[in-house]
């Protein structure tokens, strides 16, 4: 069949943003009520439930936070459709309990974590980070999570572990977008081990002090603030330690456009558009994009001596 599915057209392309966001908001309210009634989601795991014992952290920003509504209704999560409003509309079908995350590969202590054990692995902190999508928009999001290196230390990588691969859930029953072969599934991302160990890289389980909404990658997702948004894999089920750089989903889709590193870099353009500027969601005029998304003082040493035009 060659009928164009309505989801192929992003709502943002056809409706002024304010109007379609308002509509999504209404739709989301309706489907959230329905899902809660039918599935009887445990209140603890439910999106929007307050997370207990979240510490403040030194990672604060002197920039306005993107409103909760925008953070949770303007998303990229292709497993639920390619339109910005699709994830908030469709991710109600994702079941975040029970949920396990397998830690495997080149480690001394492979382990399958239950999500509720993972939530207690390390103290939860609020980290306010700038997020910059490769498409040219950005947000400031108060994540709740813990450093990825807490998990890595417990796994004890062997000498062969040089990269870490992150695998997203691959269940077409829960994720309708998987039935369309727009990307190679499951969604796969990767970091070099030293990038993954960097204290800025976190596993997020919440935002704005609350349990992560499904559309933002519940129950657990990666957040790597100095890289383009797509590196921050959502709804992770597997973390694998490997010797060779993993072939990530976006590299497989368009190797000329998406490299392994994908560091935010205003000087390296996407082949189809400039990366020099960005639109902060909620603002009218554009901002200059900052090298490493403004985290250069912390992360530039990871790339010392590398040609960032070549390792883009
Ligand atoms: N599994 C999965 N993770 C994903 C994506 C996706 O399509 N699938 N999109 C990525 C992209 S392109 C971006 S910009 C961020 C968006 O995260 P947010 O919706 O929480 O802001 O998630 C990233 N993680
Ligand atoms: Mo993105």
Mean pLDDT rating = 90
Calculate the terminal CA-CA distance, rounded to whole Å.
38 Å
Tell me the radius of gyration: 19 Å
- Measured as a percent range, the helix fraction is 10-25%
Q: Report the bound ligands by name, code or SMILES.
A: the ligand Nc1nc2c(c(=O)[nH]1)N[C@H]1C(S)=C(S)[C@@H](COP(=O)(O)O)O[C@H]1N2, molybdenum atom
Shape, principal axes of CA atoms: globular
* CATH class group: Alpha Beta
Instruction: Give the class from helix and strand content and strand pairing.
Output: alpha+beta
Question: If you consult CATH, what is the topology?
Answer: Sulfite Oxidase, Chain A, domain 2
Could you name the CATH homologous superfamily? Oxidoreductase, molybdopterin-binding domain
Number of domains: 1
Largest sheet: 7 strands, mixed
Overall CATH architecture: Alpha-Beta Complex
Helix tally equals 9
- The total of beta strands comes to 12
Strand content: 15-25%
N-to-C series of helices and strands: HHHHEEHEEHEEHEEEEHEEH
Low-confidence stretches: 1-43
List the helices and strands and how they pair.
Blueprint: H1 11-14, H2 17-39, H3 68-73, H4 86-90, E1 100-105, E2 111-114, H5 115-118, E3 125-132, E4 137-147, H6 148-155, E5 163-168, E6 188-192, H7 193-197, E7 202-207, E8 210-211, E9 221-223, E10 236-242, H8 249-253, E11 277-280, E12 287-288, H9 296-299
Parallel strand pairs: 1-10, 4-11
Antiparallel strand pairs: 1-2, 3-4, 4-7, 5-6, 5-10, 7-8, 7-9, 11-12
Residues 76, 133-135, 229-230 line the site of molybdenum atom.
